[in-house]
Amino acid sequence: MHKLVCAALLPVLLILWWSKPAISSASGGPRYRSIFSFGDSFADTGNNPAVFGWYSVFDPVTRPPYGTSFFGRPTGRNGDGRLIIDFIAENLGLPYVPPTLAHNGSFRRGANFAVGAATALDAGFFHERDIPGGASKFPLNTSLGVQLEWFESMKPTLCRTARECKKFFSRSLFLVGEFGVNDYHFSFQRKTVQEVRSFVPHVIATISIAIERLIKHGARSLVVPGVIPSGCSPPILTKFTNAPPAAYNSETGCLTAHNELGLHHNTLLQAELDRLQAKHRNVRIMYADFFGPIMEMVESPHKFEDVLMVCCGGPGRYGLNSTVPCGDAAATTCPYPSSRLYWDGVHLTEAANRHVADVWLGEINSFTGVSRKQGTKGPCRLGRHKI
Ligand SMILES: *[C@@H]1O[C@H](CO)[C@@H](O)[C@H](O)[C@H]1NC(C)=O
Ligand SMILES: *[C@@H]1O[C@H](CO)[C@@H](O)[C@H](O)[C@H]1NC(C)=O
Ligand SMILES: *[C@@H]1O[C@H](CO)[C@@H](O)[C@H](O)[C@H]1NC(C)=O
After folding, report:
1. CATH number, domain containing residue 115
2. How far is the CA of 166 from the centre of ligand 3 (A)?
């Protein structure tokens, strides 16, 4: 099966190898002049307080200890410090990507439309199915399609003629995601993993449509992350805390079925990116592996202590307790966030984000066929992981 995964990936890799980079740094100048980002809390640099405010949803990230490891104050990021996108911006020599709903100024160097809790699919898809059910207001109206509308409304302030816009966006890096984690995590409240599996093709199709829409606007460089191993995610582990022993991988302690769902999503996503790459030869579509780097950290117990325990939260087996969220006065924070993988639940610590960013930057910064070929280790390495 692992061989199959690698074989299936081969066309993607060959296409990546053959496709010419959209932008060359041969001149030594900056490769990208701006970053445009879409996504959820893994990428949100400060939009969620605005959106959660509109919907009167409690938002703990506006309180300490969010931002304690870097920035020194809550910034609206779901973490103790920098996110993956922040490390990417730093590496590319660009400003931190301003959140569009919270920044009063220019977006010519980048704009971040990502919002915590955002889904790929429109909110109606879930509300029609009573997901997550009860009195929940989630998912809010912040899907990938809505974020694209925000982008299209902003476009006239960035560039004027079609020609000028194409040129402007050809020099931008587009981060499309991660999307899918919230689609699945909300759905687990009401649906079995098998039922949720049937949503995957819809999620992939929605991401694909968004990519083509961005290419139409002139995007030439797109990074499209896959999903995390949800079966290792503390909120999922907490929700299914009474799962039978056979449901867990005995070495990692992760829930096998939830991780398999993530691998399924990532396999379909890569096949779709392969198709899009073949169709748009002058565009560079990069798959960013989110699953592999997290599994790597889960599997290296020497790297992080209590690897499935969150750093900030309330009493409970995984350090998570729905009545005492991180940001609550009664919550506790571990003394060294950088020694932990998970920060407050699904979100990673800055230390873990840095590790993931390093992997993604390896792909973003690889321009020659040789270095791109090294990337083959990434996706194929996936097959080795004990999910
Ligand atoms: C945004 O900035 C402009 C000029 O600096 C200022 O006049 C305006 O009041 C600001 N708007 C908000 C909502 O802060
Ligand atoms: C969702 O947001 C979009 C963009 O802001 C808006 O056009 C649309 O009417 C909203 N839909 C709902 C159901 O609120
Ligand atoms: C969650 O926290 C509350 C309040 O501290 C506590 O009573 C409860 O036992 C905790 N739940 C678990 C599962 O530990």
Report:
1. 3.40.50
2. 54
Whole-number Å distance, alpha carbon 170 to ligand 1 midpoint, is 30
Q: Is the CB of 141 under 6 A from ligand 2?
A: yes
DSSP letter assigned to residue 231: G
Boundaries of domain holding 57:
9-305
Q: Quickly count helices (H) and strands (E) in the chain.
A: 15, 7
Q: Report the DSSP pairing between strands 172-176 and 34-38.
A: parallel
Measured from the CA of 123, which atom of ligand 2 is nearest?
Answer: 13
Ligand nearest 106 Cα, by number? 1
Closest atom of ligand 3 relative to the 322 alpha carbon? 1
257 lines ligand 3 (CB under 6 A): no
Closest residue CA from atom 11 of ligand 2: 141
117 domain residue, yes or no: yes
Q: Whose CA is nearest to atom 14 of ligand 3?
A: 316
Residue 124 counted as domain residue: yes
In a domain, 204, yes or no: yes
Q: How far apart are CA 88 and CA 358, in angstroms?
A: 8
- Which ligand has its closest atom nearest to the C-alpha of 105? 1
Q: What is the pLDDT along the chain (387 residues), one digit of tens a residue?
A: 333 334 444 444 333 433 444 444 444 456 899 999 999 999 999 999 999 999 999 999 999 999 999 999 999 999 999 999 999 999 999 999 999 999 999 999 999 999 999 999 999 999 999 999 999 999 999 999 999 999 999 999 999 999 999 999 999 999 999 999 999 999 999 999 999 999 999 999 999 999 999 999 999 999 999 999 999 999 999 999 999 999 999 999 999 999 999 999 999 999 999 999 999 999 999 999 999 999 999 998 778 889 999 999 999 999 999 999 999 999 999 999 999 999 999 999 999 999 999 999 999 998 633 333 333 333 433 334 555
User: Does residue 227 sit in helix, strand or coil?
Assistant: coil
Task: State CA 12 to chain mean position distance.
Answer: 20
Question: How far is the C-alpha of 53 from the C-alpha of 344, rounded, in Å?
Answer: 21
This prediction's pTM: 0.89
Number of domains in the chain: 1
